[in-house]
Amino acid sequence: MSAYFGHWRLIPEISHYSAGGPPERGDYVIEDRDGEIAFTVSWEAEGKELKTEFAAPADGSPVEAGFPGVDSYSVTHEDDFTLLSDAMAGGEAILKAVRRVSRDGRLMTVLQENADGQGGWIRIFQVYERA
Questions:
Q1: Smallest Cα–Cα separation from 97: which of 75, 66, 119?
Q2: Of 87, 51, 92, 56, nearest in space to 70 by CA
Q3: pLDDT for residue 1 is more than 80
Q4: What is the pLDDT of residue 91?
Q5: Is 1 inside any structural domain?
Q6: What are the Cα distances from residue 97, in Å, to 18, 106, 110, 115, 122?
Q7: Could you give the CA distance from residue 72 to residue 92 in angstroms, rounded to a whole number?
Q8: DSSP β-ladder status, 6-10 and 63-64
């Protein structure tokens, strides 16, 4: 079983956002759902509860997105400790994420890059502990 499956809780004080700050609270659930990798991410920022969910096969094949501004996304199982994802719009990558779990399985880092619409990237580095 891959180490990234499970419930993860954000450690905001050691997470870094190149634009703005981390949310007050964050939870990340990754599970195998009918042969797909399913994500449920919820967080609280500025007093608002937010949540997103998506799922895709782990082979990197694109899935049509139901999100505004996103045409498709993909998820790739690199190894039992690393999970990649990309989102595309108009044939261009607009989001890239790398999730890596520590060898002891206690921590997960997420490096996410979001296109800023001006040719650059906004970088988010998050650290989660297994809940």
A1: 75
A2: 87
A3: no
A4: 85
A5: no
A6: 15, 19, 7, 12, 12
A7: 10
A8: unpaired
